[in-house]
Amino acid sequence: MKFEKILDHITAMRPQFRDEIRGCSEEEIATLEKIIGRAVPGDYRTFLTFMGHDTGGITALHAGGFVASHMHLSFDKVLKIEKKAKHRLPSRFTLVGEILEDPFESLCLDTEPSAAEPHVVRLSISRSSAPKPGKEGFSRYEAAQSLAELVFAGAFVSFVFPRHPVEAILEHAEPQADGPRAADKLLRRMEFTPHPASGGWSAFYHRPNAAALVYQNSRVPLHIRVRAQTVSVARQLVAMLEEHLGFVGSRLRE
To answer: Which of 203, 243, 248 is nearest to 226 (CA)?
Structure first.
């Protein structure tokens, strides 16, 4: 889904959103491109243009099956890191943010799977010293199939989830061949409505007393995060999901 459409979907959830976001100038983007020695991917340019300086109240991100509440997607932070870096990232990667829960982990766009719509990956890499010859010097972990998916997931967990105080997390031990489709079918039966921004590795659902985020990629098993109005509603939802999707155990917290 195009990034501009994602902004419309977020504004529908938070009407003041477009008044809160603040973008970068073309001159600022050109400065970053000069430092890294290449043009930034198109999706990242759009992100920077609309919300590079302020993400409009998005306080958490869902990045590869977990929620990070201390994550920067700030242009100023990216520019500072790139200015101080002793060596450049491999050309397939473009730094877009930093996960503060792990000081050695960055968020990058990876153009190798798709140059037109780069994946978002969590990258563990030292920028202070060059990798040893013959070694990549980094580990990568897929977070989202596109930057638009990552940003909308962040908006969903920042703006929709807080309306429901009780959280339940369900995870499979192994990837499920038909997991997201089976989850979609069941959640619809449970009177959840899928959000049109669903796509890539993430799907988003809501109903009057609950919301749900379903996630799975090639490395992360089926993962469902549910938020509900009350503990009793959360337990009912979890019982249905466990019975029909084969989850064993769940984490429930208020």
So the answer is: 203
> What pTM did the predictor assign?
0.91
Burial label, 181 (beta-carbon count in 10 A; 0-12, 13-18, 19+) = exposed
Check which CATH number belongs to the domain holding 170 and give it.
3.30.310.50
Residues 120, 143 within the same domain? yes
Instruction: Tell me the CATH number at 93.
Output: 3.40.1580.10
**Each residue's pLDDT tens digit in the chain (254 positions)?**
688 899 999 999 999 999 999 999 999 999 999 999 999 999 999 999 999 999 999 989 888 778 888 778 999 999 999 999 888 888 999 999 987 766 667 899 999 988 889 999 988 866 555 555 445 556 778 899 999 999 999 999 999 999 999 999 998 877 778 899 999 999 999 999 999 999 999 999 999 999 999 999 888 889 999 999 999 999 999 999 999 998 876 777 77
CA–CA separation, 249 and 196 (whole Å): 30
